[in-house]
Amino acid sequence: MHTIVFTPVRRPPPRSHAPRLLTLPADRRLTQRLPHRAPASGRRPASASPRLPRTPAPRHPSARHPTRIMTSTSAPAPAALSTPRALARLLPFARPVLGRLVLGAVSALIASLLALGIPLVLEIVVQGPIASGDPGQIVWGAVAVLALGLLEAAMVWLRRWFVLAPATAVEYDIRQGFYARLQRLPVAFHDRWQSGQLLSRMMQDISMLRRWLAFGLVLLVVNVLTILVGLVLLFRWHWLLGTIFLICSAPLWYTGYRFEKSYGSLTRQSQDQAGDLATSVEESVHGIRVLKAFGRGKHALQKFTRQAETLRETELRKARAVGLIWFWLVLLPDIAFALCLGAGIYLVQLNQVTVAELVAFFAMATVLRWPMESIGFLFSFMLDARTATDRIFEVFDEENTIVDPDQPAAVTTPRGALVFEGVHFRYQDAAPTERDLLDGVDLALEPGETMALVGLTGSGKTTLTTLPTRLYDVTGGRVTLDGVDVRDLSLKELRTHVGMAFEDATLFSQTVRDNVLLGREDLDPASPEADEVLREALAVAQAGFVDELPDGVDTVIGEEGLSLSGGQRQRLALARAVAARPAVLVLDDPLSALDVDTEALVEDALREVLAGTTALVVAHRPSTVMLADRVALLEQGRVTAVGRHSDLLRESAHYRHVISSLELAERGAGGVAEGHAPDDPGEGDRDPDLRESEVTR
Ligand SMILES: Nc1ncnc2c1ncn2[C@@H]1O[C@H](COP(=O)(O)OP(=O)(O)OP(=O)(O)O)[C@@H](O)[C@H]1O
């Protein structure tokens, strides 16, 4: 039984991504600057150009039916809702345990009412037995107070028992839903959101909601009711005493209102800043090699310190706001006590109130003191919970445009004809003045054909490869598989027919077997059939090194297991794509970290095993072009030439330019590829066409 835990193995990216990270605008990938944002933040910051409207909704019908999980995508923006309505959005999660939560609240209310009963007993004892000096009766009074106290304690215990398990169940459900949502949301969403923000929402905010449901909500309801009942009783003793008490507590409501306004935005700020801090930690842990290699550890520390200080300042402002409200919470009841004492003594002298009533009044006011004081704390807790709810629902409310169509088409026996028809694509944050990154791509891959895709860096090759599997949706035109628009297929079916291997090989902290068989849900990983698929895929990817690992294919790799080289990781990622046996294989330069000889072996094996598979291969090395039956040249957002390598060399000046720049880049990166000696004769000796390109140049 193999349990697959999806913990991405973070490794330094291979060859061409690392420099790209460093040269991209700061907002794209190394995004750590999120100064004083508007409340609804957490997304990656806007680029230097002003934030632009979203890409218009794709025209294909499937994009018009976003998946809805526990929430409506047309829901009003969280910030526009009142606090109770914002918190009411938790109801779908809380509904299954609502009964127990209500029982918990009832227990808490009974506990409070029992506490309020003690002053009433006191009144009777002072008025009767104490006034008459009957010790026997006094004992009964004491027993009654003790019994009330014991019952109150039992109810408090019961409250905890009722609410604790349901609150953790709600926490579990929200977390599950959140994680499922993250899995479903498209890559474009993950481009915009910082991982630290998502992490802090997933962990801190959801835990806060558990505490709110278990304690905050229940106590807030119960304490408000207790105060109301207590005030009625205070008025029962004497209207003047009750009025003084009420008037003195009125400023509390005003202070509470003011407090809500300032504390709410402070809470939002601090939760966002905590998310930013988590992002910084995450990025510096992932990028530790780059930071060390460039001696930027100190710089990273300074940046972290600045962010930590900002968070600390916000926390201090929060603490000051809470301190201020506590000042009033403690002062105002004391003023009320003092005024009531003066008025009470005066009323006793006028015989309008008895001593017993005055004693009971002060006992009652003392019992009410904690509920009154706690209101401020519970208020701030409620605002924290509201902010946490907003932050969580910002993710739930994100529109998912990459969803299954209402009535999916089916390609039962795929032939592998992949066609790009007038494909347009632009990223969501592209400026309106920019032309589409893919500006009318027409390209047809015949079944079983291997097509190499070449173009200058940044021309959009990787972007094009993400469209057949719908990692992104086209913004114009269409991509078809065997004549069927890929948006008309269910995502599950589409991704069974089209497999991918990326240059940046992501492996998970699990065994080699589980990593390679990731796309084969249909196979029992322990079955002989799975073994065969695994062996074959590893053989194609020239991943014989696996046999040398301590436990062979059952060796756990990744952060909690064995570390692998870039080339070894790429070979496993390639084996994963091959094992999936797709009709169309999209390879985004997955051989870049291999030495030239291993690459040639992989290519030969791929040709043999994948004879019937259509392949689209992004080529960053001239040798990769050799794998292909035909080559497509991507230039200025269009495919400007398609043909055999030798023909293109002859006919297209831009193609010659691209190939020679690839050669130059490869020579520059000569030592980077796995086991590739700088003075290695390389593929030039194997490929007459490439020599031709040098000659042409
Ligand atoms: N997720 C993204 N969001 C916004 N812009 C992006 C994103 N990914 C890539 N781009 C931009 O799109 C352009 C094309 O990138 P892409 O990676 O497709 O090019 P490429 O031809 O594969 O480049 P290379 O040869 O360097 O790998 C670049 O300008 C890049 O900055």
TrEMBL record:
It is a multi-pass membrane protein. CDD domains: ABC_6TM_Rv0194_D1_like. It comes from the Eukaryota. Residues 1-76, 666-697 are annotated as: Disordered. PROSITE patterns: ABC_TM1F, ABC_TRANSPORTER_1, ABC_TRANSPORTER_2. One of its GO terms (cellular component) is plasma membrane. Residues 37-52 have a biased composition (Low complexity). Residues 102-384 form the ABC transmembrane type-1 domain. GO terms for molecular function: ABC-type oligopeptide transporter activity; ATP binding; ATP hydrolysis activity. Residues 676-697 have a biased composition (Basic and acidic residues). It is found in: Cell membrane. Pfam families: ABC_membrane, ABC_tran. Keywords: ATP-binding, Cell membrane, Membrane, Nucleotide-binding, Transmembrane, Transmembrane helix, Transport. Residues 418-661 form the ABC transporter domain. InterPro entries: AAA+_ATPase (IPR003593), ABC1_TM_dom (IPR011527), ABC1_TM_sf (IPR036640), ABC_transporter-like_ATP-bd (IPR003439), ABC_transporter-like_CS (IPR017871), P-loop_NTPase (IPR027417), Type_1_exporter (IPR039421). The chain crosses the membrane at residues 97-118, 138-158, 212-233, 239-257, 321-347, 353-372. This is ABC transporter. It comes from Rhynchospora breviuscula. The lineage of its organism: Eukaryota, Viridiplantae, Streptophyta, Embryophyta, Tracheophyta.
